[in-house]
Amino acid sequence: MRTHFSRPAFFEGARDVAPMLIGIVPFGIVCGIGAITAGASPIAALAMSMIMFSGAAQIIAVQLLAAGAPFAVILLSCLVVSLRLVMYSAAMAPYLRPLDHRWRALLSFVLTDQAFAGTLQRFQRSDDLRANASYFLGSGALLWVIWQLATIAGILAGQVIPASWQLEFVVPLCFIAVLVPLLRDRVSILVFTVAAIAVIALDAMPLRLSMVCGGLLGIAAGILGDKMAGKRG
Amino acid sequence: MGKELTIWLLILAVGALTYTARLSFIALFARREMPPLLARALKHVPVAMVTAIVVPAVVFATPGELRLDPGNAKLIAALVAGAVAWWRQSAVLTIAIGMAVLWSLRYVVG
What we know:
The structure holds 2 protein chains of 2 kinds.
Chain A: H1 7-37, H2 42-51, H3 55-66, H4 71-96, H5 101-109, H6 113-125, H7 129-160, H8 170-179, H9 186-201, H10 209-232
Helix pairs in contact in A: 1-2, 1-3, 1-6, 1-7, 2-7, 3-4, 4-6, 5-7, 6-7, 9-10
Chain B: H1 3-28, H2 36-42, H3 45-59, E1 60-62, E2 65-66, H4 73-87, H5 91-109
Antiparallel strand pairs in B: 1-2
Helix pairs in contact in B: 4-5
């Protein structure tokens, strides 16, 4: 374990990821607020950030909890949004293969959108595995700590601000902030349209399955849309 | 099952899920390539899932009651927030303006 640790590279990783912290803080706050307004205790709300450590999975879990979705449906939705982590795992795997299993287990835990985006380039550029692994760990560790602090800020806000302010609406607004900038091409607009119509049309489905089905129909429309766009072009 | 217990079980289950996803290619099936259909589907997951989750939170006033009219304060706030997100890609600004619109419609306008 120790043989792979390089202190300068660890701090370099933490330093390089610092500009991304501004971007994750609002989402951490929203996760804290969302968990509290969905009925979680402060300890559970913090445990959610410490253990799940995934803004997408957490925000979706709290929104579905608030909407009264059953356990299995929440789990299924979190599975779909976590598939992106599988893609990062596949992209990082060739570089991490020479590390021992403890390092791989540790680095996997801190693999996030930001750590992936900030670290992949370094792995592609440099062959110094020891420094690269420590660099990755430094980025991931700082992201984890800041994520917890942002969540705590959200938990406090969620407890102090009265329910009549409808603070739970920050969760859908946060989704909108993520969603709208993605709608820049025709296939994405098709995916949005199909998912939106499907989730409204299927609203009568039991167990809030409309959300999972609407999402899956949107994904299917996207795959078909890509195929048709490919044939035309 | 009590709500608190449900939430704790959810934390553990989703925690195991996200960790397994992260670990997947790094440790579990380290020698395999990702199936191409999965890679093609992944590209559309963010738009599709976020849409499916955000739309019901905005268009239904109460469960089952579809409200696509200007009287639905959440719909108007969401549309304004969407416009902000389109022109200025800032999560903070989107959330702040969305909440401001919601509060104005609820308490100032009526």
